[in-house]
Prior knowledge:
The strands form 3 sheets. This protein has a 6-stranded mixed sheet, with helices on both faces. It is elongated, with a radius of gyration of 24 Å. Helix 3 packs across helix 4 (140-152). Helix content is 34%, strand content 28%. It is an alpha/beta fold. The structure holds adenosine-5'-triphosphate and magnesium ion. Adenosine-5'-triphosphate (ATP) is lined by residues 19, 22, 24, 42, 44-50. Residues 48-49, 162 line the site of magnesium ion (MG).
Amino acid sequence: MANAEIRTVVRTVKLTKAFGTNVAVDSLDLEIRTGEILGFLGPNGAGKTTAISMILGLLQPTSGHVELFGKKVDWVQSDARQRIGTLLDGVELYPYLSAKENLEVFRKAFGGIPECRVSEVLEIVGLIPRLNDKVSGFSQGMKQRLGLALGLLPDPDILILDEPANGLDPEGIKDLRDLLKGLARQGKGIFLSSHLLSEVELICDRVVILRKGKVVARGTVEELITDTAKIELAVNHPTEAEEIILAKPEVLSVTRTGNKLSVQYDPSATDITGISGSSNDLDTCRKLAQELNRDLASHGLFVYELTPLRGNLEEVFFDVLEEVK
Ligand SMILES: Nc1ncnc2c1ncn2[C@@H]1O[C@H](COP(=O)(O)OP(=O)(O)OP(=O)(O)O)[C@@H](O)[C@H]1O
Ligand SMILES: [Mg+2]
């Protein structure tokens, strides 16, 4: 973000929702800030939509509360919610009106939004070439864009999106990615739930992973994925190689399949590689790979395949869900 400072716009404090005995969201604390994209992950039924609905004032919390712009808000009534944009499933677009006319209807319904804002949001979402076309002829991706344009009408500080990539093709997903990144660069805060882990890894600055209503992991993408980096290698004498590798202090475990070894290591134990694990996990991984190669060669072993593998969010996701089972 160029000039503006990062501010926390939304804070949830011990936010909880129970449906009968089913605690869908359990004491959730999170912060949504301007200028960054926060990913909200979790398997089906984890409580993402329930949490988002409470933040948006669509569902009453059982306990805990939501703060907007530093103030605790009544669950249903708050003018501050006007400053939060959303793209919810099933937003009601008028099929026989054009993109522009749809926006006009919503602009008037919101009240207090200048007319020029309609072309501004059409420009932001890239719908200017289709502004006079009827929505009934729009593809899913175009409807999503128009939905986002609606959410952007009041020029909100924060956008909250529940599965925004739903129903989009790869090109639509890429467009959405560029759009969201651009909005974050302009200083908007974006909170999005998604099942597309590789996509989340590409666009999010931080992520929160939810399971059965509880946070099971949170952090920057870099912090979280560093722990799943590994080195794969193939060597002529795997048993001997395994022993040599396991003797290294930063190595946590080695898995052997035939002549192939997969090496898990502790990225923070970088006394030998000499660089911090969180600065760039792939650099650390490559350094260690070189070192393993040198060590094995000095013992007369021959490494014929060597692959440093960057960590990824999918592994983090399955690891944390597995751990808390
Ligand atoms: N209106 C409701 N009445 C009763 N139970 C509900 C209601 N809405 C959600 N639940 C329950 O709350 C839990 C969390 O559901 P929620 O829809 O928030 O999950 P989610 O993380 O959004 O899942 P998905 O990834 O499938 O969208 C589930 O056990 C669900 O059955
Ligand atoms: Mg959901």
